[in-house]
Amino acid sequence: MSTETDPAPRARGILDMNSFDLGSGEVSPAVRRRLANLGSASVLFYRNPIEMVSAEGAWMIARDGQRYLDMYNNVPVVGHGHPEVIEAVTRQMRQLNTHTRYVVGVVDDYIEALKATLPAGLDNVVLTCSGSEANDLAMRLARRVSGGQGIIVTENAYHGNTAIVTEVSPAAIRNTALAEHVVTVPAPSRENFGDDIAGGFAGAVEAAIRQLRRRGIAPAALLVDTIFSSDGVHADPAGFLVPAVAAMRKAGGLFIADEVQPGFGRTGEAFWAVQRHGIEPDILTMGKPMGNGFPMAAMATHPEYLDAYCDDYGYFNTFGGNPVAAAAGHATLRVIQREGLMENARDIGARLRAELRAIADRSPCLAAVRGTGLFIGIDVCEPDRPRTPAPERTLRILEALQGRNILTGSAGKFGATIRVRPPLCITRDQADIFIDTFSAIMSEMEGGDAGYAASGRYRPAGHEYV
Amino acid sequence: MSTETDPAPRARGILDMNSFDLGSGEVSPAVRRRLANLGSASVLFYRNPIEMVSAEGAWMIARDGQRYLDMYNNVPVVGHGHPEVIEAVTRQMRQLNTHTRYVVGVVDDYIEALKATLPAGLDNVVLTCSGSEANDLAMRLARRVSGGQGIIVTENAYHGNTAIVTEVSPAAIRNTALAEHVVTVPAPSRENFGDDIAGGFAGAVEAAIRQLRRRGIAPAALLVDTIFSSDGVHADPAGFLVPAVAAMRKAGGLFIADEVQPGFGRTGEAFWAVQRHGIEPDILTMGKPMGNGFPMAAMATHPEYLDAYCDDYGYFNTFGGNPVAAAAGHATLRVIQREGLMENARDIGARLRAELRAIADRSPCLAAVRGTGLFIGIDVCEPDRPRTPAPERTLRILEALQGRNILTGSAGKFGATIRVRPPLCITRDQADIFIDTFSAIMSEMEGGDAGYAASGRYRPAGHEYV
């Protein structure tokens, strides 16, 4: 099955998926229009893409009136259309929106509130527009500080969309090889390393450092998404990152914690996933949920590391750190803290995993349930073959969930991990809707497996990036 | 004078500038706080930075109650706090904010309105968060399509802040050399090329192509800011870019028009500066004024160029193309068109240049006035030595303008060009305030030149980027 050996997402997936429809006019006018405007960079979810018109809390409403429970989008962290964030943005837009060449108090108010949540020593915060920009700058700092060029990432990592960040994002690479200065390590999973994930992962990082050195390249950084989202969600045992980070530091490189996905309380037990591992990173990047959808991100680091970079280059970001972004970020942070959304992520997440494990126990097609807080991965396998990933079956489950008004996505090297990652405001009732629906789909699928005609004409597209 | 041979901006400029103050406590608590939060990446305008609290139209209001006429910020193109843009953003935030993995009609409505303004053939639009992201992607497309790696830019170019874009931004580079694949050409000025700017600039591009080839590097693109903002504003004669673009295409490379600064009507005579030159670029990037301050930007290109890149790599941008950005962009575009702001830029700009030329004619310290629409450069020189740029005098004029409540900035290889670039909604009365104030300052300065104690302790910092 080609999807098992070629897990890279296809940005032209929607064209591929619907190619059998284009001639017969089955593509909707809305989709046709989208393809004409965005072209190859347009990747839509699902073979039958959804046209959305509104959203509120954990619900999204489509053009045809269908209401979908959003179990996937990690950007609207306090809920779609949260009034407090909207009010903060509107008020600040009326007041003042400008760049950081002037002093604006609300920007510093926000940075100070943010710094109070961060691991020790990360006292300078560079506000950017996207996680990509934050990781792009983080890599440059690591190279400047270490003197090396080599970057070690996981084998299905995704860190963003700029040129140098795409180089360290195997999940975004299609027809080209990895650059010489990039070496990958397997995801920190039981499948890859058995019971000693910490030791196995550190050993893989050490081997990658040796591989870089054989190429004459000094290591600059170990860069990981601290929940390993695109690698299939790997959270346990907490602390497994410690020896790998130590190995990189011993080799003269830095540890960059990419918290763009797990940050801001999603992992339930700590505000930043790296804190769950008991690590103080050299650089921490953040993004997606930071402004509940307002475009903003940041890189936090030690002042001397930023100084070193700024000795060589000036850095300015026109939109980064504007007071409207600060207002959005501050309101989002305030709601997360006041409404106890980290604790909600911990509690609802634990409930979801317990229920999902019960379903997995009785399902021959579910191999494992992983995660922490509201970041959950469910491995889908061939019936009674837990070591055999089943990407086509995963797509069928995603589409069955779509058909019953629940939005999810997939991830992992083989595209065979269902990823569950709802807004942190999700309620117990909403979690139960997901569980009941998922349970019913798994029961029916196991009963009627042969009846599903796998077309083989589509690929697991578009599941890596968001 | 060190500033004449070292025009590169200093991101630590504010620390350098105020270093004599830090010990004696003369730095305000607000500035001290800013430095602690943003560190070396913080570059503030003016030796005495301004703390801003609000803004409306072309006015910005500081903490101390001073009202400043904003003659510099090209982001709030339809005016600070324009109610129509704010209303559009607020309404869309309430309705729906999500990514491009779902179809959302307002995104396509906006792209189609935008495409109607663009040069022919640029039918695919990739929406990003920043001009940096747009230029970063544009460079990758040019490299993929041309097969080359070499990029030719002007010698004081600024194109943004990602790693590969910083490489082609000499204005941002301090203590390192240009990369081997980057070759610069002089700005297209009369000083550099005499009366034949078109021929001279094309000759410089041809020489740069030869230089790349001698290094074994094929040219990928000529990348220019089509108003040459950081090089000091070079607009005339319209059409001078034509032979340079032809030379690059003949060599197999592409022409990338960086319209992040001049786009959206600012140049008065055309919606895109490149149209004034009669050129259809291969790739056009846009940003700053696009959403009147909402973080958004874009790259527009031929579908086959985007296809080629997407054969190798997937591209997705979480915040790029979200419906709130589309609403902001569409409202901004609507206001520009309905209120005739391009025509206002043409008319007020012509009036400003005429008045400025009259002042320059009687001032021994002003060598030239250039520009088109509301993008104006005023060269400052040593008295009666029009070929000798005067960066320290330029700073004194900027500070004198600050002292009389007018915001401007500087640019150019020597930091000796005053840059005038107000919101496009500026009125004739506001333009007259600027002219009267500038005229008075020039008269006083010429009368009391010797009385000004040039400290030599500060540098022309922070004027290149915005």
Which CATH-level-2 architecture of the largest domain in chain A? 3-Layer(aba) Sandwich
Largest interface summary: A-B, 110 and 109 residues
CATH class value of the largest domain in chain A: Alpha Beta
Low-confidence segments of chain A, given as residue ranges, are: 1-24, 449-466
Strand content of chain A: 15-25%
Instruction: Indicate the structural class of chain A.
Output: alpha/beta
What's the end-to-end separation of chain A, in Å? 25 Å
CATH homology superfamily name of the largest domain in chain A: Type I PLP-dependent aspartate aminotransferase-like (Major domain)
What is the assembly state of the chains in this entry?
A: homodimer
| Whole-number mean pLDDT of chain A | 91
Number of strands of chain A: 16
In CATH, the topology of the largest domain in chain A is named: Aspartate Aminotransferase, domain 2
> Biggest β-sheet of chain A, characterized?
7 strands, mixed
Question: Radius of gyration of chain A over alpha carbons?
Answer: 22 Å
In DSSP terms, counting alpha (H) and pi (I) runs of 4 or more, how many helices of chain A? 17
* Morphology call of chain A: globular
Share of residues in helices of chain A: 25-40%
For the largest sheet of chain A, list the strands in their spatial order.
4-10-9-8-7-5-6
Q: Supply the number of structural domains of chain A.
A: 2
